[in-house]
Amino acid sequence: MEIKYKAISNETVSKFNAEEFVSDYPYVIKNKETGETIIGTLCEGNYEYFSLTFNIFNEAGEMSEFSINVNEANKYEFMKPITCENLFMKDSIEEKENVPDEISNEEKDESTSDNKSDGSNVNSMAKRFGTVLTRTIDYNKKETVVSDNTNLDDINKLFGDPGDKISDYVSIKRFYYKRTYVKNETEDTDTISILIPHPLSMDFPYEMIKALGYKIHPMFIDKDGNVRDEIYIGKLVTKLGEKDLSDSITMYMASGLQMLYFIEHGLKRTSTDFHGIRALYGRYYVKISDTYFDEDNYLIIGDKNTYIKACVESGFITRFKQFEDFRECLFIPENCDENNEDLCDSCYYCPSKDECNPLMLGGRWTISSDAGAFYWDCSIASSYAAAHIGTRLWYYI
Fold first, then answer.
1. How far apart are CA 317 and CA 320, in angstroms?
2. Could you state, in order of their start, the residue ranges of all structural domains in the chain?
3. What is the CATH number of domain 5-107?
4. Which residues of 151-181 are buried (b: 16+ CB within 10 A; e: fewer)?
5. Closest alpha carbon to 284 in 381, 369, 367, 394
6. Which residue has the higher pLDDT, 208 or 293?
7. 3-class DSSP state for residue 340?
8. Beta pairing class for 215-216 and 170-173
9. For 364-388, how does the pLDDT look when each residue is reduced to its tens digit (9 = 90+)?
């Protein structure tokens, strides 16, 4: 979808018309002399002193403030997207026509309650780009907790109908995620939030969303580094040997499915079918195409030679590893306990130290007591083929 912009007239800028400059609204600001263009959201408009302050975003997604006073305003050209006005306009949004269905009543109330933003409420700003769903792992209480403002029915927005021509495939629309760890004397938590973008905000510059702490989930980034809007996850294919994995899911695709499952169901087993995806776990082992364990118990992912020290215990997962880089979307067990399934009722099996084994996900019907969306098995040699071992096909559109 192409975003269309409209320019704000110099006369309007000079008067700093409050109807044209709205808090949290995205603007394109172009320096007429240098041609430099920046993107920002208005965080403060001081009409008494004729100044505007924007939150602007650099290529790294870092946010800073940029202020303009009335004497400098004629040096800049201001533009705002007209295809998404109803998502951001704060004045009388209930009375406007064509408000997208995705905006909830809660968001409407929030958007009309205050016409001024201090630029510090990250969650409030994120909600203007889409729907935010949050679930927290509380390691002290050994449970997961859904955020008070999370409506789990909203996760349906990510899953599309594959139609008659693409039987056995389910589409998943692009989403963003944020993961936050807190560990101190009183709190030990792992919080995951996903941002489901409104249709009209899908093409907003990534820097605007990244500055709020959200990242594109890597399952939507292809091997050439291109961002994809949708991925189709397919049916299970069984009786595979080690040469039949060219179209099977990768580690990051598996983590995307795990993240969506976690947001909706937590870490416990529920129905094995998931939004049209047949047997997400518990029917067959699913081989992960780009991941294996070496003889020193290191997990190696893809062609980046990403090494992760594996948990050497077997049992129910009691804690996941914490990462501060691109691996933070992964659900890699750090600790397991064979007698404690309070947090997660899926087991993790460590590999034999003498072999390099592929990573298997989900479990199979003969071990249903251990199988689950977070079940990993690393004990099966790559040369082994059986009716209960397969993979899940996929493709981008």
1. 7
2. 5-107, 130-396
3. 2.30.30
4. eeebbebbbbebeeeeeebbbbbbbbbbbee
5. 367
6. 293
7. coil
8. unpaired
9. 877 777 889 999 988 887 777 777 8
